[in-house]
Batch of 2 targets.
Target 1
Amino acid sequence: MAYDRDNRPDLSAYWMPFTANRQFKAAPRLLVSASGMHYRADDGREVLDGTSGLWCVNAGHGRPEIAAAVQNQLMTLDYAPSFQMGHPIAFDFATALAQIAPEGLDRIFFTNSGSESVDTALKIAMAYHRARGQGQRTKIVGREKGYHGVGFGGISAGGLVNNRRLYPLLPADHMRHTHDPARNAFSRGLPPHGAELADDLEQLIALHGAETLAAVVVEPVAGSAGVLPPPVGYLERLRKICDAHGILLVFDEVITGFGRLGAPFAGQYFGVTPDLMTTAKGITNGVLPMGAVFVRREVHDAVVNGSDAAMEFFHGYTYSGHPVSCAAGLATLDIYRREGLFTRAGELAETWADALHGLRDLGLVTDIRNLGLMAGIDLAPRAEAPGARGYAAMVAAFEAGILIRATGDTLAMSPPLIVSHAQIDQLVSTMRAVISALD
Ligand code: PLP
């Protein structure tokens, strides 16, 4: 079915996720096809993808190699159960992921999304402590402004109030966030100030007792809250404190994984290795739902060898290790490797930073942050209407031919890792025109 402006679907039945449904349906923005760096909107316009879809299409759209692998797998083994049965491609994909993993995180548990990866990682952390005779370690430490998906574990660890306030939560406490524009505004790359905020963890340990804490969960670079790179030395400090108190460190790499910073994973980029790492999105270039938890071998072994029950870990999904998603993932890894996409964000980082920080002179811009191929631009909020200016900027950008994201009054960009220099110029010059025209 070919959609266009004169042939729009009925919009009423679909309750859209994380969307202002009434606002959207009154003025829809529909994408009907995609290729390379571009979407096509239903009015025929090309829209440059400044967000890799939703931080996931790292190798660009419409990759024939992935399509061919998916088609082939569909016709070879479309689905097979993963409970008490196996299929070869899931083992192959786990092996391939282990080969690019941070040192030692070579045991892989498959899920279908970032949210599932986070909740799975939390269960693994608790199972690990129980296997070692420390079953009272069940509390989680997260961070303000953290986003870890929408499962109950993820919203408990997360620190975005709208995602949490309606629901009962797991026992969790939070460190302060690291966004400090008073000291760090317009820093390029890592902000210089704020490593001491990691010491919040010491305070939470003093408050709760280390013996009750299972895991600390952070995004190495907070993404959904508006791209907040960690202060210099911050992650190293968290690692040290976790080690000193036997608490597992979980990096949520759902956004930073698969090349976003210029290394396969942020753990490698920062030289800080977590005990567990949650991933999704770029694992299949976004084309099929999939996630994976990377687990330090000792953590895996403690659970798997430390159990008297035949089945060591009572957890899994019907679609864990789905053969078609694994085929998409293997083809995706091939592209990332062959085209040098694990390191390309590093090669472009200076160009990206130069272009973005060129927007600093705009009157409404109060901060610009960047790392790898991620960027956050803060706009001064409209009086008594926080978020309205950010939303207006996102809509105006779309009309001007680029896709960006708005979280409140923060604009985020994270283009596919195949972006050209000319496309970076286009993204940033369009942003300049859009922000300049905002009221
Ligand atoms: N964790 C992080 C850091 C994310 O950015 C996201 C999604 O943006 C998630 C978890 C949730 O992933 P999903 O939407 O696939 O459940």
Target 2
Amino acid sequence: MRILVTGGAGFIGSHLIDRLMEQGHEVICLDNFYTGHKRNILKWLDKPYFELIRHDITEPIRLEVDQIYHLACPASPVHYQFNPIKTVKTNVMGTMNMLGLAKRVKARFLLASTSEVYGDPEEHPQTEEYRGNVNTIGIRSCYDEGKRIAETLSFDYHRENNVEIRVARIFNTYGPRMLENDGRVVSNFIVQSLRGIPLTVYGTGSQTRSFCYVSDLVEGLMRLMNGDRTGPINLGNPDEYTILQLAQKIQQMVNPNVEIKYEPLPQDDPRKRQPDITKAKTWLGWQPTIPLEAGLKLTIEDFRARIENSEASTIG
Ligand code: NAD
Ligand code: UDP
């Protein structure tokens, strides 16, 4: 199959491309390199069945493909809030362009939506039926509301134009290749503890998240794409931790001497988040297999190698 991955040079997209290439598909990676990087897909660049296109999805593009994994959108609050209007454009115009492409070539379209559509949830854990508690005018809205309209667009293209859609609501995912300056909690705590500087816990650290290792998530995305359920389907690891617990775990694993310091909680920061994955289990036969500690170990190794490399080249 010829498969388009938008945002393919990013964190999740590049892991997905690894799997698709290993399965022998022809892959087109489309990215504007805002938060993605060529080094993530370096090993495929000289392969005949791989193509890299530098393109911004807010502009239309004509391609012939069988499936579209639509991942292009900055995912970290630091990056999506840097230029919030651009984030909205990416979610609205970008998703419309990719759905238009899917319609024209009759490709199956998978949207990488998010647990953020549940906002600061009043139901716990979150099932797909829960309609969410999102602030329409806050600093996270460009992303949360952007993804909500991306879901709406997907379902309208499905109802109006028979586009085959799949919608995944992805919960916090971590793993190798996250950016060092990504700003997300797992990468921040790992980089801080490797550098021996205090871990920045926002608020009291009592807010919770549930962390899924990237290989598990990619498996879920591929099962959803190739199965017969439209979704939306929650994909995430239901093991829930407070942010303080996460800080202590990483501190223990990397550097027990490093301190924890408390900083103000950002506006609209969800207090808790945990997926109900009953649907993923029954419809896709999917559930995460990598426990937090094992996933963190692999992620820490990756960051350690990158940080040592960059320090060596600075000294050199
Ligand atoms: P990422 O920032 O590493 O990847 C996003 C990629 O999209 C980057 O390569 C970036 O350069 C590219 N991109 C951004 N705007 C673009 C545009 N206008 N045109 C073309 N390319 C563009 O993030 P990620 O963690 O890999 O997330 C991938 C997708 O999964 C995103 O849609 C995100 O919303 C969703 N998601 C991720 C998580 C998570 O925890 N990582 C959770 C929920 C949803
Ligand atoms: N967080 C933190 N310290 C950091 C980065 C994030 O305490 O250095 C907190 C943040 O306030 C949030 C949680 O960790 O409660 C997860 O943040 P992240 O940005 O990773 O993801 P999201 O809020 O989008 O789930």
